[in-house]
Amino acid sequence: MTQPNILKLAKQGDAEAIAFLMNRHLHPKGIAAKVAFKDAYLEVMLESAQVPNQQILVAFIRKGLTALGAASIEQVKVYGQQTGKKFPAWSKEFDLGIAEAELEAADNEESSSEPQLLTIFINLSGDTARELTNQDFEFIANQISADILSSCTDVFIQKVSITNGSSVITKER
Q1: Phi/psi of residue 121, nearest 5 degrees
Q2: Could you tell me the pLDDT band of residue 4, with boundaries at 50, 70 and 90?
Q3: CB 35 within 8 A of CB 19
Q4: What's the rounded Cα separation, in Å, for the pair 137 and 163?
Q5: Angle between helices 54-68 and 15-26 (to 10 degrees)
Q6: What is the pLDDT of residues 139-168, one digit of tens each?
Q7: For residue 32, what are the contacts with CB-CB under 8 A and spacing of at least 6?
Q8: How far is 54 from 58, CA to CA, in rounded Å?
């Protein structure tokens, strides 16, 4: 099957062609997509060794299907499952009826050459009876900062600032 034929079939709502297009992008990431289509309803099962990332993959599928423009697809349900498990870890259902303005805004955000920076501010308010010392606060704030900065791989956090009364701990990248 040639590329134009696959694209044409996918635009007509052919589940195998849609699965082929998805898997072309997902297989290198260790994710397999299985697709079924019935009565304007598309089901997509994503499976990998680790539970697939819901937020990233639902956005990927929504954008791809919207760009595909298959008029026969009205609703989509996406499942994420770890290989070998009997049941999905998560599922997300959405309509493909997205307003053009929303699509353009999403495209503009993604095509922006400026990275989106995020700053996190946390205010700790301790019980004075527990006597939270500045040393205790510094230890807690450093731990929170390290956890936040090390666990965020999809978002660039520019600064974490944690305050407790007059004490402030700030970590910048």
Answers
A1: -115, 130
A2: low
A3: yes
A4: 9
A5: 130
A6: 777 777 677 666 665 566 666 666 666 666
A7: 23, 26, 46, 47, 48
A8: 6
Checking if the pLDDT of 94 tops 80, the result is: yes
The SS3 call for residue 39 is coil
* DSSP string across 83-104: TT-SS-SEEEEEES---HHHHH
Report the distance separating Cα 159 and Cα 156, nearest Å.
9
Contacts of residue 69, defined as CB under 8 A and 6 or more positions apart, other chains included, come to 11
Tokens of 149: 């900065």
β-pairing, 75-82 vs 167-172, is: unpaired
State the pLDDT at residue 101.
39
